[in-house]
Design a protein that fits this description.
Oligomer: single chain
Radius of gyration: 15 Å
Order of helices and strands: EEHHHHEEEHEHEE
Helix content: 25-40%
Shape: globular
Largest sheet: 8 strands, mixed
Number of strands: 8
Structural class: alpha+beta
Length: about 170
């Protein structure tokens, strides 16, 4: 694994066809839908088509999805999206499988993403929007050096009701 995309046992890697089953499981978890703005599960066929046609050229598509691994095991995804080269920023989102939460994998993946965004993409900052009630995710971002810069009221639908979100920014 390239040193740029790894730190200790945690690494970010490109999507592979073999990721179909794990992506299908993760994308079908209703508890993650609030974070991803998903309102229904993805079919296995739709995910297969996504994997077959995924470009991975962040400069063309303005987004990049990577698999987070701990050792060789896939444990989550990290997305860089809304790439804005003119203003040198991008949004970042992270999903860590419930069995691997609370052990620092998310924070380490975000540290790797920060290095990639600064050294490869030449960005000035990355940011995230996180539901106010998602305390675990907020702690992951805070521990990775993100600062809360705004509160967005009634921003997301959480369990059927509107809830606030926090905008977190990280200067690179």
């Amino acid at each position: 694994m390239a040193k740029m995309l790894s730190q200790g046992k945690v690494a970010l890697r490109a999507l592979e066809p073999d990721d179909l089953n794990i992506l299908y499981r993760w994308e079908s978890e209703a508890d993650a839908w609030t974070s991803s703005n998903t309102v229904a599960p993805y079919s296995r066929h739709l995910l297969w088509e996504y994997l077959k046609t995924y470009d991975g050229d962040i400069f063309k598509t303005k987004e990049l999805r990577m698999i987070i691994t701990n050792g060789e095991e896939p444990v989550g995804t990290l997305d860089v999206f809304n790439l804005d080269m003119r203003n040198r920023r991008a949004e970042v989102g992270i999903f860590v499988d419930a069995a691997h939460r609370g052990v620092g994998v998310g924070e380490t993946a975000l540290q790797i993403a920060k290095r990639y965004a600064r050294e490869v993409l030449g960005l000035n900052q990355i940011y995230a929007t996180v539901a106010c009630r998602n305390h675990l995710a907020l702690n992951v971002f805070r521990n990775a050096g993100f600062a809360e810069t705004a509160e967005l009221t009634e921003w997301l639908v959480c369990e059927g009701t509107l809830c606030g979100a926090l905008l977190l920014q990280c200067k690179l």
